[in-house]
Write a structure and sequence with these properties.
The structure holds two protein chains of two kinds.
Chain A: H1 3-36, H2 42-46, H3 59-90, H4 95-108, H5 112-126, H6 133-157, H7 161-169, H8 174-202, H9 206-209, H10 242-252, H11 258-292
Chain B: E1 10-11, E2 21-32, E3 35-46, E4 50-55, H1 61-68, E5 78-86, E6 89-90, H2 98-104, E7 105-108, H3 119-129, H4 135-148, H5 152-155, H6 168-180, E8 186-190, H7 198-211, E9 216-220, H8 224-230, E10 233-238, E11 241-247, H9 248-253, H10 258-264
The chains are: A mainly alpha, B alpha/beta.
Chain lengths: ~300, ~270
């Protein structure tokens, strides 16, 4: 065979592999949505779960998922941005920074159940936070922080060195250059990483089973005082999330419509994660246009 | 390339009575870690003149240029010793505010590096950070600097468009406009035309010739015709030494040092 034919064959094989990937993904998505969407209704999204009867919803779990996500990102975004800026812009190449980088890489590959058990021991037991949203948010921070930090660092690293020189040569300080030139240019990458991280956190179950807990006590949506025990904002109450809920009803759910609730909740979870992913693309292109004046 | 003795050199003295010196170096050494890239260079740069730094790749001309506004400070393991005298001040000493100093000594780099902002914002960015807030002053600054950089006529109707949409030559002239918007005394240019096509190169050269009335210009170039065309003085760098410094016409027509003669006549480099 000549090289032209080989090229055709190789291209064909690559197309085939890519096609298989897309088919698997499409099959999963269609399967979950096909089974789940018929059970999703406004009633399903807003009512509390029921343990023994049919007709339970996922209202509290859905709220918990978003609140937990919010708290986890609130803690991890500032830390990851600070750490990423340090590693990319200020850290010198020596044994200490290479130790930090290696640690981050190892942390980011920890299985999430290990993070969950660590969170259980440290936050729930030692720190006395018990099964609470706060324990869960801290565990998710441990789970998410390494990836976010690496993302910030890599987004900043991808900005050409000549941009830093341009800033410094104009008499700007290093911090001004980083803050006003490098970060704005890296922002689309940073934002994309943050939103994808949010999607990952939103679907996380294993790290939360022993930290945020597996129960979703009734909430009083009329009282938003964070110190009130049934307040939706109380960070010290146990909070089963959507992903944990799916895991739980599949392993020990005894309500008659467990299969339907699980399917519906899975569909909602998938849709939320999809929204995060498409949102990441949309927002990062908007941000880029805004920061750079190209649009 | 044959070996040329570093002792065999000719450095023209510029008498301060006849020549106003804008910046000069005394016995400047640059070390990258253990290796010495510049072996004690002493050069004067006359005000409102263009001085070209020429020499083969690796001769140290860019390294030397970058130490004049302390850009080498940012590279780990770099050490610069000796004096850089600017307005009776040794700007190579520790207690100098390098950020303040760089406002007086601007720089344009080899590859055009505009910020990914609009043309207008590229020029006004640094002045704004220095407290210029008045819209009219900024507008005027944009217009005068773009005119000085010979870019105004091409971009005046699209100041809001992204600087990245400009051609390479236009981007480089924008970078020159951005540098002079800080009203520096001295403009350092590190092979500003090497990434450009011949037509853009000649526009940039015209721009530099027009700028020399107001700025002291020091330019590193690989292109000997360019040095001959635009510069008043030429310094020939060889392996970290300056072997010859003289008026440009002398360097190119009556070089006093064999190495210079071999280089400008294209025998090596």
């Amino acid at each position: 065979m000549n090289s032209k034919k080989w090229n055709t064959v190789a291209t064909g094989i690559l197309y085939f592999i890519a096609g298989v990937m897309i088919l698997i993904l499409a099959f999963l998505l269609i399967f979950i949505l096909w089974n789940g969407l018929p059970h999703v209704s406004w009633h399903f999204l807003t009512t509390p779960a029921r343990s023994f009867q049919t007709g339970g919803g996922i209202g509290i779990q859905l709220f918990n998922s978003f609140y937990l996500l919010f708290l986890a990102m609130l803690i991890s975004i500032p830390i990851s941005i600070g750490a990423g800026i340090y590693l990319s812009e200020y850290a010198k190449q020596n044994w200490l920074t290479s130790l930090i980088r290696t640690s981050i890489d190892i942390l980011s590959s920890l299985p999430s159940i290990v993070v969950g058990l660590f969170g259980f021991l440290v936050f729930s037991i030692q720190a006395g936070l018990g099964f609470s949203i706060l324990s869960g948010a801290l565990a998710l921070t441990v789970f998410n922080l390494p990836l976010l930090t690496r993302n910030v660092e890599e987004s900043l690293n991808s900005i050409s060195e000549s941009q830093r020189e341009a800033g410094l040569a104009l008499g700007l300080s290093k911090w001004e250059t980083v803050l006003r030139i490098i970060i704005p240019e890296a922002l689309p990458g940073i934002v994309t990483g943050m939103i994808l991280g949010a999607g990952r956190v939103f679907g996380e179950a294993a790290a939360l089973i022993y930290t945020a807990g597996q129960s979703a006590p009734a909430l009083d949506f009329t009282n938003w005082n964070p110190f009130y025990i049934a307040s939706p904002l109380n960070p010290l109450r146990p909070a089963e999330t959507l992903a944990v809920h799916i895991w739980k009803i599949n392993s020990e759910g005894i309500m008659p419509d467990a299969a339907q609730v699980s399917a519906g909740a899975s569909a909602v979870l998938i849709i939320a994660v999809l929204i995060f992913n498409f949102g990441a693309r949309f927002i990062s292109s908007r941000v880029y246009g805004k920061m750079t004046g190209t649009k | 390339m044959q070996n040329y003795s570093a002792d065999d050199k000719f450095i023209r003295e510029l008498d301060p009575k006849d020549h106003e010196i804008s910046i000069s170096t005394e016995d400047l050494h640059v070390f990258y870690g253990e290796s010495e890239a510049i072996h004690g260079v002493s050069l004067p740069f006359e005000r409102f003149k263009i001085t070209a730094l020429i020499g083969a790749s690796g001769s140290g001309k860019s390294t030397y240029l970058r130490s004049l506004n302390r850009m080498n400070d940012n590279i780990d393991g770099t050490r610069v010793t000796g004096k850089i005298m600017y307005r009776d001040l040794d700007i190579n000493s520790q207690n100098i505010n390098v950020y303040e100093m760089r406002k007086h000594i601007g720089m344009v780099f080899q590859r055009p590096n505009p910020f990914s902002k609009s043309i207008y914002d590229n020029i006004t960015f640094a002045p704004k950070r220095n407290g210029v807030r008045d819209k009219e002053t900024l507008d005027e600054l944009v217009e005068t600097t773009l005119k000085q950089a010979a870019l105004w006529d091409q971009v005046k109707d699209g100041l809001g468009q992204s600087a990245l949409s400009l051609s390479g030559g236009q981007q480089q002239r924008l970078c020159i406009a951005r540098a002079i918007a800080m009203k520096p005394d001295i403009l350092l240019l590190d092979e500003p035309a090497s990434a450009l096509d011949p037509i853009s190169t000649s526009t940039v050269e015209d721009t530099l010739l027009a700028l020399k009335d107001r700025y002291t210009i020091i330019i590193v170039t690989h292109n000997m015709q360019q040095a001959a065309r635009i510069s008043d003085y030429t310094a020939f760098f060889h392996l970290g030494n300056v072997l010859e410094f003289d008026e440009t016409s002398n360097v190119f027509q009556r070089p006093k040092i064999t190495a210079t003669e071999d280089y400008v006549s294209g025998r090596f480099g």
